[in-house]
Amino acid sequence: PSHDSELGQSAPAANTDIDLYTVPAGREVSGILTVCNRSAVEVRFRVARRVGGAALANLQYAYFDTPLGANASFVRSGLAMQAGVVVTVRASTADVTFTLEGSEVIV
Fold this sequence. Notes:
It is a single chain. The protein is mainly beta and about 110 residues long. The protein has no helices and eight strands. A four-stranded antiparallel β-sheet has the order 1-8-3-6, with no helix packed on it. Strands 2-7-4-5 form a four-stranded antiparallel β-sheet, with no helix packed on it.
């Protein structure tokens, strides 16, 4: 069985790494990530997928200092993650909201 829901949401302080979501043991996730810039200026954001909760390192970034225009959103669907993956996010300002929605499937 699966469960569709909001898995994590955060509007972190500027230049602060925040763990948005950790895939629980015995689960897999299919998700959609939305990054929303609530400000009138361009921002930059980062998204890392830390397998097994490993320490944050360059090889884990899916997006690194990616520009996002004023009052714009970025949507990435089709995210597949296994148990133990930690999604870590960061933005250049506090005006960015990260939302991860999806389905947790028991494996």
